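Extended Data, record GNAT family N-acetyltransferase
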Amino acid sequence: MGDVELSDGVITLSPLRPDDAEAHLAGEDEPMVRWLSGGRSTRSVVDAYIRHCQEQWDTGGSLRAFGIRVEPAGTLAGTVDLRSNVEGLGPGQMNVAYGIYPAWRGRGLATRAVLLACGYAATAGGRQAVIRVEPENSASVAVARRAGFAPAGHACGADGTRHDWYVRDLPFPPRA
């Protein structure tokens, strides 16, 4: 499994692991189901997903799923993932998706996680990060804007769901 660990001193991103399953199930609420998964998870579904994430790391697949861990204890506060094989994305574009568990929302953790994940994406050959979000998901839109993403139009999925696109070129320009 990937041994990647990214930190900004407040959070650390590291690959999801089997012992994250219980915390993930406990953190799943209605907004996470609505905006991310589309249905309630079971322990077996979460276990299978984490195994899939590990396989992606092991085989160099197109998914990089990270747990967002709050320092210093490393408590799982949510997830962020990068995917390069999403329908509609062009070469060098990486989709960024994230979810923060209810107890950790409102602390800027999603923005921190997106920025760390995008830094990793740049080192993995990504040229542009893309956040696709339903317009009604105002919290996710706010994260995209705080992380420096710009509106870039919209697209409708096969099920007719509209997603507004926010993009940011990689690597990030140096900070002044």
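Summary. DSSP finds five helices and eight strands in the chain.
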